[in-house]
Write a structure and sequence with these properties.
This protein is of the alpha+beta class. Helices cover 25% and strands 29% of the residues. The protein is globular. The termini are far apart.
Length: 231
């Protein structure tokens, strides 16, 4: 059974969130849905709804630390159905409690981050990679821009958000670039008649700079919360 829990933080702006609660195998878990609606194009590395395309919602769902399911996309689709979202969307998961999230905005850009930092390290570590799923941890980043971006700019936005994430982790005192399962979702508006389509989203472009600052602050907030919780 899914229950709606009032958020104490602002749910206004371009990226309003809800907080949902549920019980799975006796464990109380939470999820953050964004009911974006029509008019959005997203790029994401998520297991559900990843890639580039029109998407109507994003669901960031908490799962158990002992997560063992081998069908995460199906699980997320079921959770999205329980949340009542419609159409195609993006589903992300994390072992972190998404109640403790970081939220920031910068001149029209909004970003939300959740962080489980128990399993972390540097991307270019000497250890061999594995085809097996990594242990739950995961920094999930969701950001929305109120403008239209080309496909290349959307890819550029993912790079910008990732660079800002790493900078925020270092600023929060973590010696790492992230976790093995970090995921990102960047949303931009579909083009309207006569509207400008932006070709750049690097950290020194107009909208990329705003994205970088918003993501940096959102990740810094949640990473600091995680550090306080474990310190």
């Amino acid at each position: 059974m899914v229950t709606v829990i009032p958020l104490s933080r602002s749910t206004t702006g371009v990226l309003p969130l809800e907080l949902l609660g549920r019980v799975e195998q006796g464990e109380h878990l939470h999820a953050l849905p964004w009911r974006a609606g029509s008019g959005w194009r997203m790029i994401s590395s998520a297991v559900l709804g990843g890639g580039i395309g029109e998407r109507a919602w994003v669901l960031n769902a908490q799962v158990s630390h002992g997560y063992r399911r081998t069908d995460p996309a199906c699980h997320l689709a079921d959770l999205a159905g329980d949340a009542g979202v419609k159409g195609r969307g993006v589903g992300l998961m994390t072992a972190a409690d998404v109640q403790a999230h970081g939220r920031a905005h910068d001149e029209g850009v909004e970003a939300v981050a959740t962080a489980g930092l128990g399993v972390r390290g540097w991307a270019a570590a000497p250890a061999d990679g594995s085809a097996a799923p990594a242990a739950p941890g995961t920094i999930n980043i969701i950001a929305a821009l109120p403008v239209t971006l080309t496909d290349a700019a959307l890819v550029n936005a993912v790079i910008t958000a990732t660079e800002a994430k790493v900078q925020a982790l270092l600023d929060a005192g973590y010696d790492c670039s992230g976790t093995p399962t970090d995921a990102v979702c960047i949303a931009a508006r579909l083009p309207g008649p006569g509207e400008e389509i932006h070709e750049f989203a690097g950290p020194r472009s107009l909208w990329g700079a705003r994205l970088a600052r918003a993501v940096h602050e959102a990740v810094r907030i949640v990473a600091s919360l995680a550090c306080t919780a474990t310190g």
